[in-house]
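Researcher: Here's the sequence for the chain we discussed earlier.
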Amino acid sequence: MAETSSEPIPNEPATYLIVRGKKASEKAAFKDLLTKTKTLLAIAEYPITRYETKSGLNYRYFDTFDAKLAELGIFTYLAPTHNEGVKIPELRGCEYVLNVDFPPSRVKSAETYQLPIPSGTDLFQLRPDDFRFWPAISRARQAGRNMPLQEMLRLEVEANTFVLQQEGEDRVLISLDNIAATGPFNVARRFYEMVVKPLTGGPDEVQVIASYFRQHYRASLRICQHPRWRNAIQLIKQGRIEAAEIVDKDREA
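Model: Thanks. This is the structure I predict for it:
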């Protein structure tokens, strides 16, 4: 299996939590947003050229029993490679990839290491110890005082994706995601997100598309300030996800 590494791409997606509308539950607000987006031919002069639903996308997050890695900003997780625009040759044809993310330090930028998992591998039989000789896992374990790594969170995602083009090129991806989270002791919760992410487009294009949804669905959208896994853990532990309301300046005139 080939290892790949890279620094984070500065062109970050815009992520929103889908919450209760004025008269609807989170589930109903999600369905309403999905149904209405399916009827659109274009958004802000960006034609919607493809729509696809993928279910059963599984994510597994690992940490020490006391969540030491998360405390240090180190994240170890298995994730699918379903996203549009995968450009790393080693990831093409692989269903899942093991990721280890390290935060920036005084002497280094943030680092991401990825190890492709061969197609056909049983995701749920994999353990972090299976990769203990991979330098990225070894480094993460050392940071966690060499404590064993165990599954702390599992997500199962149904992703509804829309590809937006301009001048024949895939520019932006919208993903409306139905997320089932399972934590310790099989505590289960569900939440919904909308992610607007760049393919070949730039940050201004992401914001143009995101502004359409901020304008039309302000009541049922909140700005996500944390990664999805952290939202899931917060929901499991506290019963709610902290997310910021869209302020007036975020709305289109």
